[in-house]
Write a structure and sequence with these properties.
about 15% strand, single chain, alpha+beta, 4-stranded antiparallel beta sheet, 4 helices
Length: about 110
């Protein structure tokens, strides 16, 4: 299965941010989630700052999950996040929910 452009990895990420984005893409591909609901899944911290966002600007990677398949993996009220969090941990990162629609990825 090939992922659509929702999952494109932005330029300008740190090596750890790149690794995290690749791990998330692989996880989603392995779970047959080819789309992120029409929204861009990944932003670099610089892109995030340029958007005027307040939270997560010092992270390695920003992930957007507003209504997409990542929302069930990142929403604090969901219980099926263990495998996703394990994939992130294996990549050397953890996620923080910044709001109900996006999160930030940081080094362990």
């Amino acid at each position: 299965m090939e992922l659509n452009s929702d999952w494109d990895i932005p330029e300008g990420l740190s090596p750890l941010g790149q690794k995290a984005a690749e791990a998330i893409r692989k996880f989603m591909e392995d779970n047959e989630e080819d789309s992120n609901g029409g929204c861009t899944a990944f932003y670099s911290p610089q892109e995030w700052k340029e958007r005027g966002e307040r939270y997560g600007t010092e992270s390695e990677l920003l992930i957007v999950y507003d209504g997409g398949p990542m929302s069930r993996l990142c929403n604090m009220y969901c219980t099926d996040t263990e495998a996703f969090d394990k994939a992130l941990s294996d990549a050397g990162v953890w996620r923080e929910n910044c709001t109900h629609w996006y999160g930030a990825i940081y080094p362990l």
